[in-house]
């Protein structure tokens, strides 16, 4: 207790947490609507998850179990640092196990293991405005949201098809929430979009630099935008994970040597490890596992 | 000609502080009619056009528009959502500078298709077919459909802007100096095209121009403005051939003869 006495519980002061909670509640009440909030300076640079960290700090309690992932991985710098940060400033239990976490802060992935009621998924969002690259004026985009003028969003998808013959947007794929607001699901791969639809978990989005919070309450409709003759579809992979042989999961390409050698492995490290513990083996698993053992 | 006008404007005034933008302008516009508003720069033409197209709110006066259901609606009492919906369905606005009316960073096809998508069209094939059709109607080669307007010449940009506005089949189009900044041969082709489209589609249009030749070619009726007031109005040929107000006489006699 003595070493954390120098920090308020979960780093932020109580007034700030109260302000952020109000923004979160408003976001939950209006699914997909970007609520402005007074984002604070955090002990990390913008773009490293200051929004997500503030949301997590505002909702975390002493009994929570926190998991942090970065591109699906529990063991990258960002994930390790944020986990260590909350361990230090909130003294909470941390885990890499998706099923036993109560709060999962994520950068750009939704875990493969299905989320359950009571879990909260906190997204780190760089640019919350899905219309931003089409319409640079904030005054105008807010008006477009208010008046539900979303034709422009389809202009982007049209451009994709005109240029590439298909919808080439692969991440930050725009969705419509509860039939009303068009929302940027943060730069998660569109592979994860279907997991947002009617998810039993609460999904919170924090954009620290842009000072916006938005939310998708449990069991809310989240529909990816598309055309009738070019329907939404997720990425498919023609080979299973090289380590755990999982199919229908999102894979990362890992470069193995300087001679073009590469392999595709689960981006969700927790999922991959669990499967290997259960005895699943991919075609590269033995060679890869030996040095580690 | 139907019995009722499309747009009724009554005592419209716009003041910028103590300066007059336009003062006490009244007129009716009928379906299929092209009205030219002429006058020198600073005479309030563009202010009037911006008020009518609800891009500006007037200081006083009213304008009512006959909606597709036949009911007149007072423009300045509509909600912003209704006005913006009107702007992108039943109306068009052709800017003098095409860059103001186009999205310069998306392809020509998407520029034409945007209004269709905005009113809920969700079939790529159909949107593209409509875009191709409209590009050919404004004499843009079909293989330019995926080019950005940045790669277009001034005349092509202006024609693209016209296609983008007409794709939803509007009934009223506002044009602000549609041929400004184009060289004379391109102007002539654009005017020819506009005249064809207006006649074919039965569009009503309000064209603001300082170029009396444009007014003569396009419009049936014209209003001459000076210092924010309408000094003369009437059939275009009558006003140009037999100007009555001293200012109009001056304007007509100022045309350079080649």
Explain the layout of strands and helices.
The complex is a heterodimer of chains A (293) and B (258).
Chain A: H1 14-29, E1 35-36, H2 50-59, E2 65-70, H3 77-90, E3 93-94, E4 103-107, E5 120-124, H4 138-146, H5 151-164, E6 175-177, E7 181-183, H6 193-196, E8 202-207, E9 212-216, E10 222-224, E11 251-255, E12 262-266, H7 269-277, H8 285-292
Parallel strand pairs in A: 2-3, 2-4, 4-5, 5-8
Antiparallel strand pairs in A: 1-9, 6-7, 6-10, 8-9, 11-12
Chain B: E1 7-16, E2 19-29, E3 34-38, H1 45-52, E4 60-66, E5 72-74, H2 80-89, E6 91-94, H3 98-101, H4 108-118, H5 124-137, H6 154-166, E7 172-176, H7 184-201, E8 204-209, H8 212-218, E9 221-226, E10 229-235, H9 236-241, H10 246-253
Parallel strand pairs in B: 3-8, 3-9, 6-7, 7-8
Antiparallel strand pairs in B: 1-2, 1-4, 4-5, 9-10
Helix pairs in contact in B: 4-5, 4-6, 5-6, 6-7
Provide a descriptive summary of the structure in words.
- The complex is a heterodimer of chains A (293) and B (258).
- Chain A has 293 residues and is an alpha/beta fold.
- Chain A has 8 helices and 12 strands.
- Chain A has helices spanning 14-29, 50-59, 77-90, 138-146, 151-164, 193-196, 269-277, 285-292, and strands spanning 35-36, 65-70, 93-94, 103-107, 120-124, 175-177, 181-183, 202-207, 212-216, 222-224, 251-255, 262-266.
- In chain A, helix 1 (14-29) packs across helix 2.
- Chain A is globular and about 55 Å long.
- The relative contact order of chain A is 0.15.
- Mean pLDDT of chain A is 92; it is low at 288-293.
- The longest helix of chain B has 18 residues, at 184-201.
- Chain B has 10 helices and 10 strands.
- In chain B, helix 6 (154-166) packs parallel to helix 7 (184-201).
- The model of chain B has no long low-confidence stretch (mean pLDDT 92).
- Helix content of chain B is 38%, strand content 25%.
- In chain B, strand 1 (7-16) and strand 2 form a beta hairpin.
- Chain B is of the alpha/beta class and 258 residues long.
- Chain B has helices spanning 45-52, 80-89, 98-101, 108-118, 124-137, 154-166, 184-201, 212-218, 236-241, 246-253; strands at residues 7-16, 19-29, 34-38, 60-66, 72-74, 91-94, 172-176, 204-209, 221-226, 229-235.
- The N and C termini of chain B lie far apart (38 Å).
- Classes of the chains: A alpha/beta (293), B alpha/beta (258).
- At the A-B interface, helix 5 of A face helix 2, helix 4 and helix 5 of B.
